[in-house]
Every structure is written in structure tokens, then in C-alpha cells.
Design goal:
- This protein is mostly helical.
- The protein has one domain.
- It has 13 helices and no strands.
- Helix 1 crosses helix 2 and helix 1 packs across helix 8.
Length: 275
């Protein structure tokens, strides 16, 4: 069975939001959920980011809510669109939160780069198909527009530029910091609660095993046995091959509908999300 590319025929220069929405909500919803979670996770290894998140006390004492707030704000922007009133409200709330802290433009550029690069690398490595050039371009244009609305300056113009920014920033800035490690540990502790409790120890090892070696080193995590690392990556690739033969999704998988979102059982208001 051959599954179609839903966005075929759309213009990534104009329809980048629609293409990105189809990519993330229909074709690769599970992959995008994992990839974006790990994208945000790796930013903690930059000490200026990890220390800031730790010192707010939110990411270690109320990890579930901070996870939910971040996911819901970004999810609403995707779902509603950046040029709509609800989408702009979500961006405004995000900018209000960031504006309370002294965050450098370089750190903001790097965080945005993780959202461009890591989903692309994840899907290329584990997805049921590879992204098309138009989907790659749409992703770049999506985050360039979002970055502009966030006031982030000097953004790369293409995927290769975002990859260089990410790789060079990590090579220069990744370093061990105990506060960054505490935020990473709290996030992993939350992650394993999304699955049956008996699996928690294996899932923690699995999560560490699929991290890039320089990311593990920055957090001070032990290197996994090579056989376990290969098996972990192999399991994700096998999942992608199996998904290839599954029926197409006919309803979007939206962040607000995720069972991982637990903080707002009665619903939420964008204005109430965040610190």
C-alpha cells in the first residue's frame, strides 16, 4: 500500500503553515511529539538555559504543568495558525513569559533551531517515509515566521543554515551543570509516567540510549551498552517500517487532545498558561 503525501501541490513559500500542520497532525503525529520533546530537552544542556529553567523552580517542582503549558502554547499556534487571533494570543503569552527573563538572542536562535532540525532528523531516521523537500522548506519558513513574531533576530534562511547553527552552538556551549542535570532528570522522570509503571526503568535507559553521545556527556549520563543503544535505535526504525503499512489518519492528532496533557482536565485559557 502506498500512502500519499498530503501536502503535494501546496506551495511551501505560501502554504507553510498548512503543510506543517498536515505533516505534524496527520502524517507524523507520534514522531513529532517525541522529536519536539527531545528538541526541548536538549536545550537544557546549554548551561545558560538549564540554569534559568532550574532557578525558576518550575521545571523541577511542577514538571507536568510546565510540560503541558509549553506543549499547549506551541500546539495552539500550529492548530489555530499564526495569523489568527487565537494564534497571536498564544504567541503573545509566550513572549510575555520570555520577556520576564534575561534571555540572549543567541539562546533564542538555538532553541528555535532545535525545533527546525530535530524533527527533521528524527523523521529521516525513524519515520515511515522521509520528508519531502517542500516539507523541509515549509518547516523552515514556519519557524522563521514564528521567530520573527517572537522578535528573534538573524535567523538562518534554509535547513542547512539551521543545522550549522545547532551543531556549532552545541559544540561551543554544551557543558555539564548540576542544575541542568536536575532539570533533565525531572523531565525524564515525567516522561516515564506516560507509560505503564513497570516499564519505567527500561524507558529511562531507552531515552538515554537514543540521545546523541555529546548530549549524554553534557548531562553526565553513563554511556549505555552498545547492544542496548543499537537495539533502541532499531526499535524506533522498526516502528517506522510498520507504520508505513497502517491506514492513513483521517482526523488530526492535536496537542490539546493528548493523554499526556494532565494539568487542565476542565479545559484551559491561553492567558492562564505558563509561569
Amino acid at each position: 500500500m502506498t500512502r500519499r503525501v498530503r501536502s503535494a501541490g501546496l506551495d511551501p513559500q505560501v502554504d507553510f503553515e498548512q503543510i506543517s500542520r498536515m505533516f505534524g497532525q496527520y502524517d507524523f503525529p507520534w514522531d513529532m511529539e517525541q522529536a519536539l520533546s527531545f528538541a526541548l530537552f536538549r536545550t537544557y544542556a546549554v548551561p545558560s538555559i538549564g540554569r534559568l529553567l532550574h532557578d525558576t523552580h518550575q521545571f523541577t517542582t511542577d514538571t507536568q504543568r510546565r510540560h503541558d503549558d509549553t506543549a499547549l502554547i506551541l500546539g495552539e499556534i500550529v492548530d489555530q495558525g499564526m495569523e489568527t487571533q487565537p494564534g497571536r494570543a498564544a504567541i503573545r503569552r509566550m513572549n510575555q513569559m520570555h520577556g520576564r527573563y534575561d534571555i540572549t538572542n543567541d539562546d533564542m536562535r538555538y532553541v528555535l533551531a532545535t525545533f527546525v532540525v530535530m524533527p527533521n532528523r528524527w523523521v529521516n531516521r525513524y519515520g515511515w517515509r522521509r520528508p519531502t523537500p517542500d516539507e523541509d522548506l515549509a518547516g523552515v519558513n514556519y519557524y522563521r515566521r514564528l521567530g520573527t513574531l517572537m522578535g528573534v533576530r538573524d535567523l538562518p534562511e534554509d535547513l542547512a543554515g539551521f543545522e550549522r547553527l545547532l551543531d556549532e552552538y552545541e559544540a561551543e556551549h554544551f557543558a555539564f551543570d548540576p542544575r541542568s542535570r536536575a532539570v533533565a532528570d525531572a523531565t525524564l522522570d515525567l516522561f516515564v509516567t506516560f507509560y505503564p509503571r513497570p516499564l519505567a526503568p527500561v524507558l529511562r535507559r531507552f531515552s538515554i540510549a537514543i540521545m546523541d553521545p555529546h548530549l549524554r556527556a553534557a548531562f553526565g549520563y553513563e554511556e549505555p551498552p552498545r547492544w542496548f543503544e543499537r537495539a533502541s535505535h532499531g526499535a524506533l526504525r522498526l516502528r517506522g517500517r510498520l507504520v508505513r503499512f497502517m491506514p492513513e489518519r483521517h482526523k488530526p492528532r492535536r496537542v490539546r487532545d493528548s493523554r499526556r496533557i494532565r494539568s487542565y482536565p476542565g479545559g484551559f485559557l491561553i492567558e492562564d498558561l505558563g509561569t
